[in-house]
Write a structure and sequence with these properties.
single chain; Rossmann fold; four-stranded parallel β-sheet; alpha/beta; signal; ABC_transptr_periplasmic_BD; Vitamin_B12-ABC_binding; Periplasmic binding protein; 274 residues
């Protein structure tokens, strides 16, 4: 397979081309495993990193360590023909491992909503599961198109994205969450910040005067606690009830579940519009 067929930032060939569809792959990021399953190739995964928990079957995969520092010995024991990393800069140590094993090394780094179905298609080509991958990608594109049509021209809603609480962090417009906000007619109050993820203060959030707050949460109890915390801080959007908790894994992982999160978020921002 030629690297020229692979879209930039999605799957980039760095070590060896696959002479045939991959049969024994290791996903070195949780989102990569999820995308492989979406491409119809979950049965080709023989290992994954800690934190890989979706779909539920992925929890049974042998662990090869942490995403930031996978264990070369555990990887070697699994005899992979394909390693799927996340970002080339962070994955530099993977190259010699792949070379020693004679495995292909690819990177999956979707940065926009449109990149997600494209990544699924690319993985379908790597695994020879094009029929299922292409069908899944087409379904995701149709959902994105429906959202774009529905929310085009909607009144803008100023949004603060809560990406961390201790300390308080947010994301700028270059994040994939920023792409979701644009789709829904949201305006990120820290969208023009110079770095992707930045630490902010409560005073800064108050000064930004968001109409709504969006937070990645772990269940309904966490969502309720997040609302109470912002209300206790006296943030006007929270006092009006416009604090929206979205499942954190769905919101922050660049997979098909982010389209689920986008549909939820778009609907919640309609509530803030009144």
């Amino acid at each position: 397979m030629s690297a020229a067929r692979l879209a930039p930032r999605l799957i980039a060939l760095t070590v060896a081309a696959l002479a045939q569809p991959a049969r024994r792959a290791i996903a070195l990021a949780p989102h990569a495993a999820e995308l492989v399953y979406a491409a119809g190739a979950g049965d080709r995964l023989v290992g994954a990193v800690r934190g890989t928990d979706y779909p539920p079957a992925a929890r049974q995969l042998p662990s090869v360590g942490d995403a930031m520092q996978p264990d070369p010995e555990r990887i070697a024991v699994l005899c992979p023909d394909l390693l799927i990393g996340w970002q080339p800069a962070a994955g530099a140590p993977l190259a010699p491992i792949a070379a020693r094993l004679g495995a292909a090394l690819y990177y999956s780094d979707p940065r926009t909503l449109a990149d997600i179905p494209a990544a699924i298609e690319q993985l379908g080509r790597l695994f020879g599961t094009e029929a299922q991958a292409d069908a899944g990608a087409a379904a995701l594109r149709a959902r994105l198109a429906a959202l774009a049509a529905r929310y085009a021209g909607k009144a803008p809603v100023r949004v603060f994205v809560q990406a961390g609480t201790d300390p308080l962090f947010t994301l700028n417009d270059h994040s994939i969450v920023g792409d979701v906000l644009r789709l829904c007619g949201g305006v990120n109050v820290y969208g023009q910040a110079p770095i992707l993820a930045l630490q902010v203060t409560l005073e800064g959030v108050l000064a930004a005067r968001p109409d709504a707050i969006v937070a990645g949460v772990d269940g309904t109890a966490d969502a309720a606690a997040t609302l109470r915390a912002w209300q206790a801080a006296g943030v006007p959007a929270a006092l009006r009830g416009h604090v929206y908790g979205i499942d954190a894994d769905s919101l922050y992982r660049p997979t098909g579940r982010l389209i689920d999160a986008a549909e939820q978020l778009c609907a919640r921002l309609d509530e803030a519009r009144g």
